[in-house]
Specification:
This protein is of the alpha+beta class and 532 residues long. It folds into three domains: 267 residues, FAD/NAD(P)-binding domain (3-Layer(bba) Sandwich); 108 residues, Flavocytochrome C3, Chain A, domain 1; 103 residues, Up-down Bundle (Methane Monooxygenase Hydroxylase, Chain G, domain 1). 37% of the residues lie in helices and 20% in strands. Helix 15 runs antiparallel to helix 16. Bound molecules: flavin-adenine dinucleotide (FAD). Flavin-adenine dinucleotide binds next to helix 1, strand 2, helix 2, strand 7 and strand 15.
């Protein structure tokens, strides 16, 4: 096993991890970013549309604050939101200075120009800035364990997904920036590996998760290209008619009149489409957005953008197939307003963190929030760096983790694992029983089945490191599926993105956050009243 020493280890190379690394290197400390996917690619940052919600002009700080809290149905942690809205403008200005091109619009900044997605530009600007300040990178390495002793984080263990090389990281501090768990639903628009690994690393280190029942479902993705799901610009939802297989007008049927419907009525729109699919009024899982009678001049975007859109979805020729998908995990690790977790020397930022968005995320807040808390986590990590005379001896801990997470799980003589098959089962259970529309019975069924799948996944062995990485993702998906499901079962009301068919109304007495931690493999739930 190779042991690597660094001042700060950052796990995750999306917007949060990259911004944290820049902060650390700028402050003169070694920053090593380790990612299970290629750096700057194959994550949700890369796929992002590129909208940053940020105050400017008439959309002032108070307006941003108010919109964030009302979208979150007032479950947001106020200290985090205050910090976020205060710091976001300078973070966006800095990205522009680093070369990110874009335009301000009413409530924010958009990087999307001619290109369909803005994420690649964001990633490349951040990666270039990282290289300039000397950040180190290690890609295709999956971190499976945090090294925690006496509630202090000393580093991490991981393995290379292709070669099987083992890595022990000894670090003064660790920043978790592993993103969300949107990919554990069968229908999603996330990068494939978004299985919420950081939630499980945190749970295993005895940290708490908050608000895990709140998963955002996006109503408007293109469903005409097989399994590949691509977001359609939200404005198109207002311009065309939305119909089912029978030709019924769904905006009328579900009274979806507030515009932009894919932004302000995101939940109700996703619920309406899901209901239609469940009623069998779909065609191969899709409904239709008919833009054929729409005046092309009203379609937003440059001529180049529209030409690309026509090529991709032929909106001028045929009704566009649309479907709802899982999109964003609002819940996550509990942090304070400086990015500290409850473990010494362990920090977290980005979609792996909970509490900022409350019951639902305002569109465009994820990217700006990940920038703000990435920088804060990086800064706090440097401030709190321990001053050891001799670095702690982690050899024995590493050997234990290597045995448990790698050696005992790879067996080249075993038959191919059931990982992909189990992952598919988790996805379908989550989509059908713990997804857009949930009820007590469906959630209980899901929880029981997921426990069975988790048991099976834990008993499996993999033939090689690549298969092991998939099997571990499957195990993480099962744990997160269970945590989301039991949190959703606990919340007997509907609020934000969480809709209970058996409790369809918001209930004032539920103005509480659900916290969850694992105790001997079982979830332990507590309700915490949101402080005024
Ligand atoms: C299609 C789409 C469009 C979106 N558009 C917007 C938008 O326009 N505006 C907006 O505000 N938000 C948008 N979002 C949400 C936003 O993109 C994400 O919330 C944000 O990019 C998350 O950033 P992150 O750094 O936390 O995680 P990510 O960018 O997902 O990065 C996570 C990183 O962690 C690594 N990782 C995970 N587990 C491990 C492990 N075990 N070991 C090692 N590495 C690991 C991954 O490989 C990856 O490098 C969109 C999301 C999607 C899916």
């Amino acid at each position: 096993m190779q042991i690597i020493d660094t001042d700060v280890l950052i796990i995750g190379a999306g917007i949060a991890g990259l911004r944290a690394a820049i902060e650390i290197a700028r402050k003169g400390k070694n920053a090593l970013v380790v990612s299970k996917s290629s750096v700057g690619k194959a994550n949700n940052t890369y796929l992002a549309g590129g909208l940053f919600t940020v105050s400017h002009g008439n959309f002032n700080r108070d307006a941003h604050l108010e919109k964030t809290l009302s979208s979150g149905r007032h479950l947001n942690k106020r200290s985090l939101v205050d910090k976020f809205v205060n710091e976001a403008p300078s973070m966006i200005a800095e990205l522009q200075e680093h070369g990110l091109e874009g335009k301000f619009f009413f409530s924010g900044f958009a990087t999307r120009g001619v290109s369909f997605i803005g994420g690649p530009k964001i990633s490349s600007v951040l990666v270039t800035s990282c290289h300039k300040v000397g950040v180190g990178f290690l890609e295709d390495v999956m971190v499976t364990d945090l090294l925690v002793k006496d509630r202090t984080c000393l580093g991490a263990f991981g393995f290379h997904k292709r070669t099987g090389d083992l890595f022990g990281f000894r670090a003064g501090a660790v920043v978790l920036a592993t993103g969300g768990a949107g990919a554990i639903f069968s229908e999603h628009d996330n990068a494939p590996g978004m299985t919420g690994d950081g939630y499980v690393l945190g749970l295993r280190a005895s940290l708490e998760l908050i608000d895990m029942e709140f998963v955002q479902f996006y109503p408007l993705v293109y469903a005409g290209a097989g399994k590949a799901r691509m977001i359609i610009p939200a404005a198109l939802g207002d311009l065309g008619e939305i119909k089912n297989r029978l030709g019924e007008n769904l905006k009328e049927k579900y009274a979806l009149h507030d515009k932009p419907i894919a932004i302000v009525s995101r939940d109700r729109f996703a619920q309406a489409l899901y209901r239609e699919i469940r009623l069998g009024n779909d065609v191969d899982g899709a409904l239709f957005l008919d833009l054929r009678k729409t005046d092309d001049a009203t379609i937003p975007g440059s001529p180049g953008f529209k030409a690309q859109l026509k090529k991709l979805i032929s909106y001028d020729e045929v009704p566009v197939r649309i479907a709802p998908v899982s999109h964003h995990t609002m819940g996550g690790l509990v942090i304070d307003a400086e990015g500290h977790t409850g473990i010494e020397n362990l920090f977290a930022a980005g979609e792996v963190v909970g509490g900022i968005h409350g019951a639902n995320r305002m569109g465009g807040n994820a990217l700006s929030e990940a920038l703000v808390f990435g920088a804060l986590a990086g800064s706090s990590a440097v401030e709190d760096l321990p001053s050891y005379r001799t670095p702690p001896d982690i050899k024995a801990m590493l050997d234990r983790h290597a045995q448990r997470s790698f050696h005992s799980r790879v067996d080249k003589n075993t038959k191919a694992t059931e990982g992909p098959h189990l992952m598919k089962q988790i996805g379908q259970l989550m989509w059908k029983k713990s997804g857009i529309l949930r009820n007590g019975t469906s959630l209980k069924e899901a929880a029981t089945s997921i426990q069975g799948i988790l048991k099976e996944a834990l008993e499996q062995r993999a033939v090689n490191p690549w298969e092991l990485s998939k099997l571990i993702e499957c195990t993480h998906a099962a744990i997160n599926a269970y945590v989301i499901t039991v949190s959703a079962l606990e919340r007997t009301e509907s609020r934000g993105s969480h809709y209970r068919e058996d409790h369809p109304l918001e209930d004032e007495s539920w103005k509480k956050n659900i916290h969850i931690k694992m105790s001997e493999g079982l979830p332990e739930i507590s309700r915490v009243v949101v402080p005024r």
